[in-house]
Amino acid sequence: EAGVAQSPRYKIIEKRQSVAFWCNPISGHATLYWYQQILGQGPKLLIQFQNNGVVDDSQLPKDRFSAERLKGVDSTLKIQPAKLEDSAVYLCASSLVWLAGENEQFFGPGTRLTVL
Amino acid sequence: TQLLEQSPQFLSIQEGENLTVYCNSSSVFSSLQWYRQEPGEGPVLLVTVVTGGEVKKLKRLTFQFGDARKDSSLHITAAQPGDTGLYLCAREAQAGTALIFGKGTTLSVSS
To answer: Among candidates B23, B46, B10, B21, which has minimal Cα distance to B100?
Structure first.
């Protein structure tokens, strides 16, 4: 079974530029998550989709970050304009079910973003 | 708050040694997950503990959930270089929702 795919794996940009990340979840997984992992910390949720609807985006900095999941499959996360503090690994995860205690999430390898 | 405190933050040991890492919270949680993350990869689920006092074993790894369901530990017996990585504990923010992670314990096992 193919895992969660993400691209690009690495991205270096200058502050105030824009960047986009792409995620292809495991086939059949209805729930998709984007996490931000700053060096030395655990992942922090940015946004959660159930099919193509947003479940939770309370921690997404909406003035600069946006995400969409058209057709309930692939997803893109965009940052515009980027700030230095956005340097982090952006992880995409998906899960088959959305039930308490059974929420096994499968993570992609992440995109490492460096903002100069 | 629903913060998860992990300790120690860093651990560097020799192959063959035993170690324990901890995950604590001031709140009760219904379940807790442990993940391992290797450099350049996403976290991979090791185990989910649900019942207070529960002990689960995965080869040389032993996971324990506290009786009050506020804390958990991961014990590794005879550590190997392949155990090197970031160990994260996580809980659901609300039932069936995204995970809240601790900051993790970075383990380095040298041969």
So the answer is: B23
Q: Give the range of the structural domain holding residue B22, as residue numbers without chain letter.
A: 5-110
How does pLDDT run across A42-61, given as a tens digit for each residue? 999 999 999 889 999 999 99
d(CA A107, CA A4): 6
Q: How far apart are CA A17 and CA A13, in angstroms?
A: 7
Fold of A5-98+105-115: Immunoglobulin-like (2.60.40)
pLDDT over 80 at B54, yes or no: yes
8 Å CB contact of B42 and A40:
no
Place A104 in a pLDDT band, splitting at 50, 70 and 90. confident
What does pLDDT average to over chain A? 92
The residues pairing with B89 across neighbouring beta strands, listed in sequence order, are: B34
Choice among A24-38, B1-15, B54-68, B86-100 with the minimum mean pLDDT: B86-100
Instruction: Quote the minimal CA–CA distance from B85 to chain A in Å.
Output: 12
Residue whose C-alpha is closest to residue B38's, from B84, B92, B90? B84
Among partner residues B48, B95, B101, which is closest to A42 by beta-carbon distance? B101
Q: Is residue A100 packed enough to be buried (19+ CB in 10 Å), middle (13-18) or exposed (0-12)?
A: middle
Residue B72: CATH number of its domain: 2.60.40.10
Contacts of A98 in chain B (CB under 8 A): 96-97
